[in-house]
Amino acid sequence: MNDASMSAEMTANLSKSLDFDQAAKPKVVAKDVNVFYGEKQALFDVSIDIVEKSVTAFIGPSGCGKSTFLRCINRMNDTIEGCVVKGGISLDGDDIYAPSLDVVELRARVGMVFQKPNPFPKSIYENVSYGPRIHGLARGKTELDEIVESSLKRAGLWEEVKDRLNEPGTGLSGGQQQRLCIARAIAVSPEVILMDEPCSALDPIATARIEELIDELRANFTIIIVTHSMQQAARVSQRTAFFHLGILVELGATEQIFTNPSDKRTQDYITGRFG
Ligand SMILES: Nc1ncnc2c1ncn2[C@@H]1O[C@H](COP(=O)(O)OP(=O)(O)OP(=O)(O)O)[C@@H](O)[C@H]1O
Q1: What's the total number of domains in the chain?
Q2: 80 CB less than 6 Å from ligand 1?
Q3: What's the CA-to-centroid distance between 200 and ligand 1, angstroms?
Q4: Which residue of 83, 218, 241, 254 is surrounded by the most CB atoms within 10 Å?
């Protein structure tokens, strides 16, 4: 390719990614986020808009700060001693670090699914009904039953568990447990779901099931997924953010990031030169 056609192609791609950005409404907006663990700085001036009702993947080599940034969005870093977050993050314009903000309420708006499925040591029913109960989302048993059923249906688990709702959640297979954790997250009607490597403990079939589910859920939720798998990022996300050494190097439409990244570090990572 000569320089002229390369630059035409780059301009076309850039305008494609700008179109993509303009059509989308930002749900989470981070501005100049810096995170420290004691003396060590883990994130440097991260600014990003996460658009609503889509999947954004965070990729990058181990230790680059993906999970640290994810945890900033529901203030899970507050629970880590010595961790200090500076900068601003808003959810639909609300400053989530405002002193008046109720963190319990924030975590109902921003749910989280972890790497290892972690159902409570309770029944399947109680795993899903716990959140709606403590947040007062149901006006009685019938409504609670309805929330449990609809959450399990949306998580694609209902048919497999409807006859064993009183059995322990921990008795399910790994993939089913992860779908139970997704049902638990959905049950409180969050706006955003954070997923920290949700498939890393699962086999390929269970992984495919969760990936299909993520694709269905994006119609109603804003999803951010940290993944080590570039194939997974390419399959499930519409936007991809590449982190390196605590810096957000590049954010763009997933297709553009994987076919025509603008930064050499992204190019080196996606072509397997490091990471
Ligand atoms: N609780 C903690 N205490 C101290 N340092 C931490 C803590 N958690 C993360 N770090 C450090 O912050 C940096 C970013 O870590 P983080 O886990 O966010 O990266 P990551 O990109 O998610 O990595 P991985 O892909 O391996 O999960 C790393 O240098 C890590 O050692």
Answers
A1: 1
A2: yes
A3: 17
A4: 241
